[in-house]
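Q: For a teaching session next week I want to show students how multiple molecules come together into a single three-dimensional assembly. I've collected the sequence lines for a complex. Could you give me the predicted structure tokens for the whole thing so I can convert them for display?
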Amino acid sequence: DTGVSQNPRHKITKRGQNVTFRCDPISEHNRLYWYRQTLGQGPEFLTYFQNEAQLEKSRLLSDRFSAERPKGSFSTLEIQRTEQGDSAMYLCASSPKEVVGMENIQYFGAGTRLSVL
Amino acid sequence: AQSVTQLGSHVSVSEGALVLLRCNYSSSVPPYLFWYVQYPNQGLQLLLKYTSAATLVKGINGFEAEFKKSETSFHLTKPSAHMRDAAEYFCAVSDGRMGRRALTFGSGTRLQVQP
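A: Of course. Below is the structure for the complete assembly, covering every listed component.
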């Protein structure tokens, strides 16, 4: 168990550029989540996959954001035409198939910090 | 809709003193409740969870929390603070119904431990 892996750890981009982040969940975890965390705040839910199906999307996920999990393993989060307000830490989490007493346990990666200049 | 309120954005205690971090939640359905800890430049680590079993929950690093439905609270405690406990702590709630997975987090409490 190597934990949830996110790449890159840091990304600096200019306003208007597109960026893509990758998340590799813990092996055999079938659920994968994306959250956004701004300075001084708790994480905010963006979207959730079960296997390759995207089952929940937050209203925070504007049409400039898209997430995929094509083979039910790793996931990518793309932001098109970045804005300064997109600057944040983007966190990925994964969770295994549930058993009683272990419902909705999410394991987080270290995040990708995005700075939009 | 669910929400979490963490009272006190900063808490400072002396090493060896009691740690009490407050969390109140709002949920229209039976909730799952969690405490996470975040160290600088790291992701969130699960401390403990409540998922409708025992109301007093023990977690890692000597932390525990008690679910009080009547008070809609899930406060985090530790009898004796250690320097390594200095970090940001987040309380989170999720809908206990099947298929709902999004965690709603509070805004966090930064714990400072004085020597």
